[in-house]
Amino acid sequence: MLELDGVSVDIAGVPVLRAVHLHVPPGGRVALIGRNGAGKTTTLRALMGLLPARQGRVTIDGREATALPAHHRPRLGVGYAPEDRRLFGSFAVRDNLLLPAQVLKLPAAETARRLEAVFGLLPGLRDLAPRRAAGLSGGQGKMVALGRALMVGTRAVLLDEPFQGLAPALAQRYAEALKRLHHALPEVSILITESNPGLLRPLVEQSFVIERGEISRA
Q1: Direct distance between the N- and C-terminal alpha carbons of the chain, in angstroms, rounded to an integer
Q2: Does the global pTM surpass 0.85?
Q3: Domain ranges, residue 107
Q4: What share of the chain is helix, strand, coil (3-state, %, to 5)?
Q5: Residue 199: enclosing H or E segment and its boundaries?
Q6: Which has the least CB within 10 A, 70, 147, 163, 216?
Q7: Is the pLDDT of residue 132 over 90?
């Protein structure tokens, strides 16, 4: 479903990813483990086209996507929840959730269906829907970012450090949401980055380690 084949990425002329290989199969649940600065976020941004690959190939659902602009990649069914959430604080939660579907110009009926599916997977978002995103707690914001990614992530979802900064109770709630996602939509691939492998061990099938921009099996 998702594949990086010998991908190298530079930022401001500095090598960050060094000929990395990573494969996430259809319906697979994969963790990418590494400390801060190891290249986890850069890996996800390379998959999403937010950072260009200097060399190598990016494949999404069997399609060559290395040169595909970032704004076209969600059309391939890939959703992305960045570490810092990137919510529009002046927008209601509902509007933040709807935004990617509106950008993709999905039909109204399909947008409504997807929103209901997100509320089914993340029931707490229904009550939060009318609230402004600026008034959310960090944990609530993480849930909204996950819901927004699911609005377009019909094939794969990329989650960058979703447990970072969460209190244990909120981390448990987030983990339960990911389990519901897998059971409800087993065909959706999930790639999660994290610095603490213990948090992800019950949730994933495969783990990879990234260190100094190089990826290896855990």
Answers
A1: 20
A2: yes
A3: 2-217
A4: 40, 30, 35
A5: helix 197-200
A6: 216
A7: yes
